[in-house]
Structure of Response regulatory domain-containing protein:
Amino acid sequence: MHNAVSKRAALVVDGDAAVRDRAETLLGETDFDVVVCANGAAAVDALREGGKDFVLLLTTATLAGEIGGHRLARQAGEFRPGIRVVMSTGTPETCRARMPDAAVCTRSPWLPLDVLVQAHAAMREPRGPVA
């Protein structure tokens, strides 16, 4: 039987295929529909398409390309107000200064439990707009 209710989606964006695979496997064990992208431009395209109910973005501050991690976090909030952004970084204490208020910074490499805590929160309580 086909479920008429769409699953909430998580967008995983990282230039490292091993990190993307790890996140996809972890979040795939939850109730998320997981979409993976290798760069910020592909992620923005996925957010613009509108076919998924994205409530979680997992990315890295060091995302290479024209659309880096911080810019992606801001654009995600523009396209999907309420999306929970989780940014991995080597320096979470300085990451906060450059991040939108609704974003969470976690040490890189991220720990599965940290991601799962944020994933559960994204399912339960969407955050305010990312500004």
Notes: Residues 1-5 have pLDDT under 50 and may be disordered. The chain has one domain: 8-124. Residues 8-124 form a domain with the Rossmann fold fold (CATH 3.40.50.2300).
